[in-house]
UniProtKB/TrEMBL annotation:
Key words, A-Z: Membrane, Transmembrane, Transmembrane helix
InterPro entries reported in the protein's UniProt record: Capsule_biosynth_CapC
Annotated TM spans: 12-30, 50-69, 81-100, 106-126, 133-157
GO biological process: capsule polysaccharide biosynthetic process
Pfam families: Caps_synth_CapC (PF14102)
Provenance organism: Streptomyces vietnamensis
Domain of life: Bacteria
One cellular component (GO) term of this entry: membrane
Record protein name field: Capsule biosynthesis protein capC
């Protein structure tokens, strides 16, 4: 982990790298790695703060479990399923944010995009085989992280 504060340019490049690797993953395996923006955002999170990434994984697991439970009581499919899962992820992430923001104010600096990431991953876990989705998401996020980290260490990508 590089203790760095990323510039907006580096963040945009990280998201773009994640999009590129996600697209390659989807086109070659027909698996979505947790959504198109997810791997880039996870890579940026790993560069900035490992604990935030761990927290996102925990909220993703809670979102997935809550969504599977909700499906036992409510008919959810298609766009309603997507909306319900992403909304549940946002609500869980917002709850954690409200609880932790006073204790850890720097944890959430500018991470509002991360509020939807747990829902995106959980949605793909519901739609696709779980193991394949976890493998695709972690592989693409790790590839993005490695390229981003090497770029920062070589001074190719700007950072503060």
């Amino acid at each position: 982990m590089i203790p760095a504060v990323l510039t907006p340019e580096t963040a945009a490049l990280g998201i773009a790298l994640g999009l590129l690797f996600s697209l390659v993953c989807y086109l070659t395996t027909n698996l979505s790695p947790g959504g198109m923006i997810t791997p880039g955002w996870l890579a940026l999170t790993l560069v900035q703060d490992l604990w935030l990434a761990v927290m996102v994984l925990g909220i993703t697991a809670a979102t997935y479990a809550g969504s599977v439970l909700l499906q036992k009581f409510v008919i959810l499919y298609g766009k309603r399923l997507f909306a319900a899962v992403v909304l549940m992820g946002v609500l869980l992430q917002a709850t954690v944010y409200v609880v932790l923001r006073k204790e850890f104010p720097l944890l959430y600096g500018t991470q509002t995009l991360g509020f939807i990431v747990p829902g995106l991953i959980a949605y793909q876990l519901i739609r696709q085989p779980r193991g394949a989705t976890m493998f695709a998401t972690s592989t693409v996020a790790l590839a993005t992280y490695v390229v981003l980290t090497v770029g920062i260490l070589l001074g190719v990508m700007p950072h503060a």
